[in-house]
Structure formats: structure tokens, C-alpha cells
Design goal:
Number of helices: 3
Structural class: alpha+beta
Shape: globular
CATH topology of the largest domain: Jelly Rolls
Distance between the termini: 60 Å
CATH architecture of the largest domain: Sandwich
Order of helices and strands: HEEEHEEEHEEEEEEEEE
Radius of gyration: 18 Å
Mean pLDDT: 87
Oligomer: single chain
CATH class of the largest domain: Mainly Beta
């Protein structure tokens, strides 16, 4: 086989393998890799600032508007440590005041040990939130990090038998209205609806979803949506940050 052709095929295989490890398809223009020319270090085009305008989940039900806390630096050499017990210990540690009740504001400061971190109100144009790109764009540590995320789902009525469906690259834990809903352990790639909660109830009005995602080596991202008892995306919801 021609040497140049062989090299090109090998490069394509590496790219496809990397994409599969992220739970993504190899769509043209969608490859998420850091190159030597990628020096801008901005959130564009992976995030846009959140606004106060009406926002609904996307057609597939994924929530794209979130408050994200800049990454908390951790000491993690391998994702093999992500057992259920390890993750619960990490996620139940109090890193900052009112961690499980606060509804932060955009650019609000948080002190975590020696780190001073900011909350960012952002929207993703994709169904998932690329946390690696969030950290990279803000010139923060991208590996061995813990992210916190908060959003508010507004429901026009009480809804029973709802399930919270989550995918994450790295381990994660998610709460609905202050109660643990689902935990994703192990060294996993992000796949939509990878873990689904037991049946939950959405209150009429505001419902707070809170999540924590931890990762060592590798990319970090997550996707979240709410499903009805038939497994279909719930309609009629709006997303706000206050």
C-alpha cells in the first residue's frame, strides 16, 4: 500500500477511535481535538452566554442552559479509582458554603481551599456540555478536576413518574430538588441516557437539578434530559437560572 495512504488511514482510525471514546459520531466539522494552532483559549464556539430569554430543552429534550463552576483541582492519576464509594465521598465533601442549596449568580465568586473560582451562566449549542472545553477556554486545569453544575427546570404542572437521564465522561452524581437521583461510576465515556434514575416527581414551578462531574485523564462532558414514563422527552418545560 502507498505509504502516504497508509499514514492517512492510520490517522483516520485514531480520530474515529477518539470520537467513539467520547460517545460521538464522526460528523464532518465536529471533531473535538486540541491542535497546535488552537491557542485562542476562548469558550467560543462551544458556549454562549446565557440570557434571561425563554429557553426550552432542545427537540430531543436535552438541557443546554447551565450555571457551571470553574473546575476544582483534584489529585487523580487514574480514572480506575471512580468506584461508587469513592465518588460519593468526593461529591459529598463540602467544598464551598451552601453547596447543595445555593442558586449561584453569573460570575459569583466561590473560595475552594486556595482556589478562587467563578460561576458562569452559559448555554451550549450542542446537546452536551463540553466541560473540557469550558476549562480549556478559561485557561484552567483540564484534567484531574471536579465540576459543579446547576440549572432550574420550570414545569407547568406536577409530573409524576419522571426519570432523569444522564450521560457523562467521567464519574458524576446528580440531584433533583436536593435528593440524590442518579450516580454514574467507573471510567466511562459519555453516552446519552447512560444512566436513568428511578421514578421521580417534578414539582409544579421550579425544580433544581444539581450535578457534579469528576475526571482524571481524558475529556469531560455531560448531557441531561428528563423523560416521561414512556421514555419520551418531556414537553412544555422551560429552563432558567434563577
Amino acid at each position: 500500500m502507498n505509504i502516504k495512504l497508509s499514514a492517512a488511514l492510520a490517522a483516520a482510525f485514531v480520530i474515529l477511535t477518539g470520537l467513539r471514546s467520547q460517545g460521538q459520531s464522526a460528523a464532518p466539522g465536529k471533531i473535538d481535538v486540541i491542535t497546535q494552532n488552537d491557542t485562542a483559549r476562548t469558550l467560543t464556539p462551544f458556549f454562549i452566554p446565557a440570557t434571561a430569554s425563554k429557553k426550552t430543552p432542545n427537540p430531543e429534550g436535552f438541557i443546554q442552559r447551565w450555571l457551571l463552576l470553574e473546575p476544582i483541582n483534584k489529585s487523580i492519576r487514574s480514572n480506575l479509582v471512580f468506584t461508587d464509594n469513592y465518588l460519593k465521598t468526593q461529591f459529598e465533601t463540602n467544598y464551598f458554603p451552601n453547596q447543595f442549596t445555593v442558586i449561584p449568580k453569573n460570575l459569583e465568586k466561590v473560595k475552594v481551599a486556595e482556589q478562587e473560582l467563578l460561576w458562569h451562566a452559559l448555554e451550549s449549542p450542542n446537546f452536551n456540555l463540553k466541560l473540557f472545553r469550558f476549562a480549556y477556554g478559561l485557561k484552567k486545569q483540564t484534567y484531574a478536576v471536579l465540576f459543579w453544575a446547576v440549572t432550574i427546570v420550570n414545569s407547568p404542572r406536577e409530573m409524576k413518574n419522571v426519570r432523569l437521564a444522564v450521560g457523562s465522561n467521567g464519574g458524576s452524581m446528580w440531584w433533583l430538588n436536593g435528593k440524590e437521583a442518579v450516580i454514574l461510576d467507573g471510567d466511562r465515556r459519555m453516552v446519552m441516557d447512560d444512566c436513568v434514575s428511578t421514578r421521580l416527581t417534578l414539582n409544579k414551578g421550579k425544580n433544581i437539578i444539581r450535578g457534579a462531574v469528576i475526571n482524571g485523564p481524558g475529556l469531560s462532558d455531560f448531557c441531561v434530559r428528563l423523560l416521561d414514563e414512556k421514555g419520551e422527552p418531556i414537553k412544555g418545560l422551560t429552563i432558567s437560572l434563577q
